[in-house]
Amino acid sequence: MAGSLNKTRKQIAKKRGGEVNALHEKSRDSLRLHKAGVRDQRLEKLAAARSKKEQPIADRVAHFQQGLDRRDNQPLDVGAIQELIHNFIHQYDEELGELKKARRPGRPASAREDLLRIKVTALETEYRNGFAIPDVMSEENAKLVADWEGSWSKLAALPWIKVTSSGQARKADFPSKGIN
Fold it and tell me: What are φ and ψ of residue 47, in 5° steps?
């Protein structure tokens, strides 16, 4: 049970001498309980939607954090960053290949296959225009990314850059609108 409903239930129980099990269907107290329950459900739904929108950004940072970890948390040059971006974009290739093999000839692609193909295409387009990543090209920024523990609040504090497929890197803002 979420916070608002618990608080309301506790207040009503306190008012009624400790029992909340016998309320009239249209009483003020039952309406308060219903309203608190609906509010909690709405807040949970919003939190789930926000988490779903934020997940691709967190996954991207985690991928680059692992790439830094493999290189002993040393700052990366543009070539190493491009290699990590390429690995990130093509991480679904194996699953996509298996889905294509499993499909009978002449049959349409499955929903999962279409979704993966769209995702890879969107990532490749973003890479051509400028792929947003945390800045790992300097010592202090690489340390910040290496120390990131997975919280959303610290992501906004990280400096971000956009790297194009031609190898240009430029400063960028935090992708607060989400990625993909």
Answer: -65, -40
Those residues with Cβ within 8 angstroms of residue 26's Cβ, 6 or more apart along the chain or in another chain: none
60-172 folds as de novo design (two linked rop proteins) (1.20.1440)
The DSSP bridge partners found for residue 161 are 133, 171
Measure CA of the first residue to CA of the last residue in the chain; give whole Å.
33
Output the tens digit of pLDDT for each of the chain's 180 residues.
467 888 888 888 878 777 777 777 888 888 888 898 899 999 999 989 888 888 888 898 999 999 888 888 888 888 999 999 999 999 999 999 999 999 888 899 899 999 999 999 999 999 999 899 998 888 888 888 888 888 888 888 888 999 999 988 888 887 765 565
Q: Which stretch of DSSP H or E encloses residue 32?
A: helix 28-70
Q: Letter for the amino acid at 33?
A: L
What are the residue ranges spanned by the domains of the chain?
60-172
Alpha-carbon span 148 to 153, nearest angstrom:
10
DSSP assignment letter at 158? S
